[in-house]
């Protein structure tokens, strides 16, 4: 049984703050500060460039990838770290598209994160393909023999709607297509089972529920059956079979290692590695059960005490990730008023208040407090102040 009281103590949570925005940026694990400081003092300072060998910097992407693999239903040696999520999306989709050369369609849905759609749109232009976008509920019916790649974010960033990975992957395979799953709002939040669902490729970021810090590196997973066949368009030095042979032509490394591109961000990977220590004693079924408990309690509390808000997430927890969103015509101002009272969520245009429930550090007391503050703000209309309507650069 996972001790969530213990995991909460592993994080620095500012006094007086109820943090419900871990689906955008996780809080800092207490161990990360010392781990990064020690790396800089003992490794970078003293070892200089020899740290790539002596401190194991070069193999960090594989070692950290193995730690994430357990959390997403993957096996050892199947996940590698590095670069940004957009780059990993590009690599995965381009590799999958190349494996179905007679097909032109990259299929996605309108609930996908815009950045993924931007990447796919640019790729489609470059390789004479077509990006086809349908409503989330229309995805299964849109998979036909023209589709090369199904590119889906498992949990919708605005509504929290969760796609059925296993069912959609099976439908795609029956039609002869491959799947690319974005786990940005899944990894560390829900019980992902990539091998069990027979997915083809998956990518994800680590600064949300995995708490790796702002700009933490992304990960990419390739099913073992594709690992030595996938040929991404973006080929980098670190994905070469022998980087330090300095060959003029590219020879892909075996397995998922070919998905490495640039020099690993060692400091960021060190912080992420410290963050992953918290997961060593966490059961993913326990995590999912606690997530459902928290989100259900929040929905019940808001609907009882905040009648001005309209639920924007699936009511059935089986169809929802670990986030809940509500709509309000003045959603931005309401969220700013909440943040001013120490309850931190975020806003997504045009009118969505979004709340993430990370079981590692959010508990039922946090849920009750957030509902209480929200009810107060809506009742006295304290959100309707000039400073709360002024849009910041990041919402």
TrEMBL record:
<feature type="binding site">
    <location>
        <position position="153"/>
    </location>
    <ligand>
        <name>pyridoxal 5'-phosphate</name>
    </ligand>
</feature>
<comment type="pathway">
    <text>Cofactor biosynthesis; NAD(+) biosynthesis; quinolinate from L-kynurenine: step 2/3.</text>
</comment>
<dbReference type="Pfam" id="PF22580">
    <property type="entry name" value="KYNU_C"/>
</dbReference>
<dbReference type="GO" id="GO:0030429">
    <property type="term" value="F:kynureninase activity"/>
</dbReference>
<dbReference type="GO" id="GO:0030170">
    <property type="term" value="F:pyridoxal phosphate binding"/>
</dbReference>
<feature type="binding site">
    <location>
        <position position="85"/>
    </location>
    <ligand>
        <name>pyridoxal 5'-phosphate</name>
    </ligand>
</feature>
<feature type="binding site">
    <location>
        <position position="185"/>
    </location>
    <ligand>
        <name>pyridoxal 5'-phosphate</name>
    </ligand>
</feature>
<dbReference type="GO" id="GO:0019805">
    <property type="term" value="P:quinolinate biosynthetic process"/>
</dbReference>
<feature type="binding site">
    <location>
        <position position="86"/>
    </location>
    <ligand>
        <name>pyridoxal 5'-phosphate</name>
    </ligand>
</feature>
<dbReference type="InterPro" id="IPR015422">
    <property type="entry name" value="PyrdxlP-dep_Trfase_small"/>
</dbReference>
<keyword id="KW-0662">Pyridine nucleotide biosynthesis</keyword>
<comment type="similarity">
    <text>Belongs to the kynureninase family.</text>
</comment>
<dbReference type="GO" id="GO:0005737">
    <property type="term" value="C:cytoplasm"/>
</dbReference>
<dbReference type="GO" id="GO:0019441">
    <property type="term" value="P:L-tryptophan catabolic process to kynurenine"/>
</dbReference>
<dbReference type="GO" id="GO:0043420">
    <property type="term" value="P:anthranilate metabolic process"/>
</dbReference>
<feature type="binding site">
    <location>
        <position position="182"/>
    </location>
    <ligand>
        <name>pyridoxal 5'-phosphate</name>
    </ligand>
</feature>
<comment type="pathway">
    <text>Amino-acid degradation; L-kynurenine degradation; L-alanine and anthranilate from L-kynurenine: step 1/1.</text>
</comment>
<feature type="modified residue" description="N6-(pyridoxal phosphate)lysine">
    <location>
        <position position="208"/>
    </location>
</feature>
<feature type="binding site">
    <location>
        <begin position="113"/>
        <end position="116"/>
    </location>
    <ligand>
        <name>pyridoxal 5'-phosphate</name>
    </ligand>
</feature>
<comment type="function">
    <text>Catalyzes the cleavage of L-kynurenine (L-Kyn) and L-3-hydroxykynurenine (L-3OHKyn) into anthranilic acid (AA) and 3-hydroxyanthranilic acid (3-OHAA), respectively.</text>
</comment>
<dbReference type="InterPro" id="IPR015424">
    <property type="entry name" value="PyrdxlP-dep_Trfase"/>
</dbReference>
<dbReference type="GO" id="GO:0009435">
    <property type="term" value="P:NAD+ biosynthetic process"/>
</dbReference>
<dbReference type="InterPro" id="IPR010111">
    <property type="entry name" value="Kynureninase"/>
</dbReference>
<protein>
    <recommendedName>
        <fullName>Kynureninase</fullName>
        <ecNumber>3.7.1.3</ecNumber>
    </recommendedName>
</protein>
<dbReference type="InterPro" id="IPR015421">
    <property type="entry name" value="PyrdxlP-dep_Trfase_major"/>
</dbReference>
<feature type="binding site">
    <location>
        <position position="207"/>
    </location>
    <ligand>
        <name>pyridoxal 5'-phosphate</name>
    </ligand>
</feature>
<keyword id="KW-0378">Hydrolase</keyword>
<feature type="binding site">
    <location>
        <position position="237"/>
    </location>
    <ligand>
        <name>pyridoxal 5'-phosphate</name>
    </ligand>
</feature>
<dbReference type="GO" id="GO:0097053">
    <property type="term" value="P:L-kynurenine catabolic process"/>
</dbReference>
<keyword id="KW-0663">Pyridoxal phosphate</keyword>
<comment type="subunit">
    <text>Homodimer.</text>
</comment>
<feature type="binding site">
    <location>
        <position position="263"/>
    </location>
    <ligand>
        <name>pyridoxal 5'-phosphate</name>
    </ligand>
</feature>
